[in-house]
Design goal:
three-stranded antiparallel beta sheet, 76% helix, mainly alpha, 11 helices, single chain, globular
C-alpha cells in the first residue's frame, strides 16, 4: 500500500507542477500584454479570477496529498482541515462558474452588432466585477457546511460513517441535509454546463458563418483572419470537450463511492486527481484560444 500511495504522490507532484506552470504562465501572459500597451479586455478580469481559482483547486488538495504520500499524516490539524477543504470546494465552484462566464462573455464579444445579444454587451462588461463578487459569495454559501463536516483524522474515531483522506476525514452524520446541499451544487454545475455548451456552440456557428462568407468573397485567396477563426473554433471545441469530459469523469468517480466505500483511499485520491485535471489543462488551452480571439475584432 505504501508504494501505491507513493505513486499517487508522484502523480500529484507532476499535476501541481504542470498546473501551476500553466496558470501562472496565463497570468504572466496577460500581464505582459498589459505592460506592452495592449488595450485591456473585459475578459482579462475573468481570466485573472479563473487563474486564482484554478491555482487554489490544485494547491489545496495536491499539496496535502503529496505530503501524505511521503509519510506525513498529522500536519494540518482540525482547523487546517476545515480551511483547506473549504478553500478547495469554494475554488472548485468558482472555477466552474468562471469558465462558464468566460464562454458567455466571449460569445457576447464576437456576436454581430445586429444580434439581439449585442445590446447586452456593454451592460455585461460593466457588471463583471459584481459577477465575480457574487460568484465567490455564492460558493461560500453553497459550501458553508464544509467546515462542519471536516475534522482531523485522529479526532474521528468512526471512519465507517465518513470519508478517510489519510490526513483528514469528513463526518457524514446528517445525510438529509448533505443531500440538499449536494443537490444545490449539482444543479449549479448542470446549469453552468448547459450555458457553456450553448455559448460555445453559438460562437462556433458565428465563426463558421463568417468563414463561409470570407471564403465566398476571397475564393482564390487565403485569408489570415479565416485561419485565425478556424483555430479559434478548434480551441473552443477543445475547451468545452475538456470541460465536459472532466466533469463527467468526476461524476463517475463520485458515483463509485457507495460501491467501493468511502474509506477506499485510492478512490479518494483518484477523485482529487480528476478534480485537478481541468484546472491543470485549461490554462494551456486558454492561452492558445486567447491568442486567436485577440485577432478577431470584426463585427457584423
Amino acid at each position: 500500500m505504501t508504494s501505491k500511495v507513493l505513486r499517487f504522490g508522484i502523480v500529484f507532484l507532476l499535476q501541481i507542477f504542470i498546473g501551476t506552470l500553466g496558470n501562472f504562465s496565463l497570468l504572466f501572459y496577460h500581464a505582459f500584454l498589459h505592460s506592452s500597451g495592449f488595450r485591456s479586455r473585459p475578459t482579462d478580469l475573468i481570466l485573472r479570477h479563473l487563474t486564482v481559482a484554478n491555482s487554489l483547486v490544485l494547491l489545496s488538495r495536491a499539496i496535502p496529498e503529496i505530503m501524505a504520500a511521503f509519510g506525513l499524516r498529522h500536519f494540518l490539524g482540525d482547523i487546517g482541515c476545515k480551511l483547506v477543504f473549504s478553500a478547495h470546494r469554494v475554488a472548485r465552484g468558482v472555477s466552474v462558474t468562471t469558465t462558464c462566464l468566460l464562454s458567455v462573455f466571449q460569445y457576447l464579444t464576437v456576436s454581430p452588432r445586429n444580434s439581439r445579444w449585442a445590446e447586452h454587451r456593454v451592460k455585461a462588461q460593466k457588471s463583471i466585477g459584481l459577477f465575480h463578487f457574487l460568484c465567490w459569495v455564492l460558493h461560500m454559501l453553497l459550501n458553508i457546511r464544509t467546515p462542519m463536516l471536516m475534522t482531523d483524522r485522529w479526532s474521528n474515531s468512526n471512519l465507517s460513517t465518513g470519508v478517510d483522506f489519510l490526513y483528514c476525514s469528513a463526518v457524514l452524520h446528517d445525510r438529509d441535509t448533505n443531500s440538499v446541499f449536494a443537490a444545490l451544487t449539482f444543479s449549479h454545475d448542470v446549469l453552468c454546463l448547459e450555458l457553456k455548451i450553448w455559448a460555445s456552440g453559438s460562437m462556433v456557428l458565428i465563426l463558421n458563418r463568417h468563414m463561409q462568407h470570407v471564403h465566398h468573397i476571397h475564393r482564390h485567396q487565403v485569408s489570415s483572419r479565416s485561419t485565425a477563426e478556424s483555430r479559434t473554433t478548434r480551441s473552443i471545441l477543445v475547451l468545452v470537450s475538456a470541460f465536459i469530459f472532466s466533469y463527467a469523469l468526476s461524476s463517475i468517480v463520485h458515483v463509485c463511492f457507495p460501491e467501493f466505500g468511502t474509506t477506499a483511499w485510492w478512490l479518494v485520491s483518484t477523485s482529487a486527481f480528476v478534480n485537478g485535471c481541468f484546472p491543470t489543462a485549461s490554462p494551456f488551452i486558454l492561452m492558445g484560444r486567447e491568442r486567436c480571439v485577440s485577432h478577431l475584432t470584426w463585427r457584423k
